[in-house]
Amino acid sequence: MMAISGMHLTRIGKGNFLLEPLRSMNIADQGRLMQEVVAQVRQGQGVRLYYDLNGLPVIDPVYYDWLNNLARICRIANIEMICINMEPTAAFTLSSFLSGKPEFATALAVPD
Amino acid sequence: MVQKKETSEKLATLFSLKIGNISGQLEETGRVFFCADTMLMDEDEVADLSSEFVNLITGLLSAKEPAKRTIPQFHALEIFFSELAHRMLMRGGNVEDVVRYAQQLQYSLIAALERDSGVDFTQSRSVLLYFAQLFDELIMAIFRTYLGEREKTLKAQEMELRETSTPITEIWDGVLTLPIIGTLDSSRTMLVMEALLNRIAKDHARAVVMDLTGVRNIDSQVSHHLIQMVRAVQLMGADAIITGIHPEIARALVSLNIDLSGVTTRASLSDGLKEAFSRMGIQVSQKAG
Predict the structure, then answer these.
(1) B43-95: per-residue pLDDT in tens?
(2) Which residues of chain A neighbour B202 with C-beta distances below 8 Å?
């Protein structure tokens, strides 16, 4: 597990990384967070970043921007970002204001 | 004011008489309405009902201000009729019987009082008026209960219909089907979406086939909700496939300029299932031989 304030970033094999955000994560400081995440994943030769949304009941436009920005920077670094475990309520709220396709992919969970 | 005072005094005089003995006459009224053909009550229940009514009406008429509608004695009588209406409706009776019973109670009560007091009520307009107003209010309570029950039944039926008209079935491991039948309105679409998203999370479904064969009409708001539903399904990480879009609906979607680029559509439910299976790497083949 790698230490980045406000999140757990774990290498889960086959070039996959799992990012679990904590309650203390401050997305106002997203520039630094994005930089650190990409640096750690590249250092571990990762190609895929699974972002765990479990337990997040609502995704508002601010949080959506953070996810999109992180997905964009990951793509530049040749890392695919996939959001997993999205709660039904979060999917519902996000779909209500979504105008285009999100920058990240989605999956139910990390594939076996 | 003068009339009120007069009524109150007359009533007080009348109800200083023993009216406990009218319970038997009221029982007869109850038997006619609830025991004879309808069999909604047994005789003991009618006897209890009549005696309770006598107690309540005695309480009201011996109150300081029996014409006031805010006193607890009146409220108790209102509850009595309201509960009676509720009970009868639950047992399959109709509101008309309860209303006619209330009216008959009024007539029996007046007749009994007239007989016991020896006063000719046709000479006493104020007493008759008092009873007419009192029973009008009580009949209103019966109607309020009836309408409330009816509304509750309608809502329950509507809910049941909605649930049964949108059955979400796991047709294969990880494949959900959702045949939508009837008219899609906004509230129904929201309900379907909520049920579907929760089901995806619960069953870890990887594909959802939404069949619109049974949907004939769709408006602009609902089209947007439908697309929102597809997006929400995709956001949860499942594939959404829409099947059976009627030409009218396709035309509506096109005229509304709705972006369907991210939406997979197939002509029929069977094609939709084939698509879902193929995406999941499932092959269904006929048994050899």
Answers:
(1) 888 888 888 888 888 888 778 887 888 899 899 999 999 998 888 888 888 88
(2) none
- pLDDT single digits (tens) B191-219: 888 889 999 999 999 999 999 988 877 77
As a CATH number, domain B169-279 is 3.30.750.24
Domains of chain A: 2-107 (3.30.750.24)
The domains of chain B are located at 2-161, 169-279
* Interface confidence: ipTM more than 0.90: no
Measure the N-to-C terminal CA separation of chain A; round to a whole number of Å.
20
Q: Kindly list the residues of chain B whose beta carbon comes within 8 Å of any beta carbon in chain A.
A: 193-194, 197-198, 200-201, 204-206, 228-229, 231-238, 262
Using CB atoms within 10 Å of the CB of residue B9, give its burial: 0 to 12 exposed, 13 to 18 middle, 19+ buried. exposed
Report which of B251, B196, B181 is spatially closest to residue B223, judged by C-alpha positions.
B251
Pair B229, B196: CB distance under 8 Å: yes
Helix (H, G, I), strand (E, B) or coil at B62: coil
Spatial distance between the Cα atoms of A56 and A106, rounded to a whole number of angstroms: 15
- Which backbone phi and psi does B209 adopt, to 5 degrees? -105, 115
Instruction: State the nearest Cα–Cα gap between A107 and chain B, in angstroms.
Output: 4
Other Cβ atoms closer than 10 A to B223: 20
Q: What is the pLDDT of residue B64?
A: 80
If one looks up domain B2-161 in CATH, what number appears? 1.10.490
β-pairing, A105-107 with A80-84?
parallel
Cβ atoms B268, B243 nearer than 8 A: yes
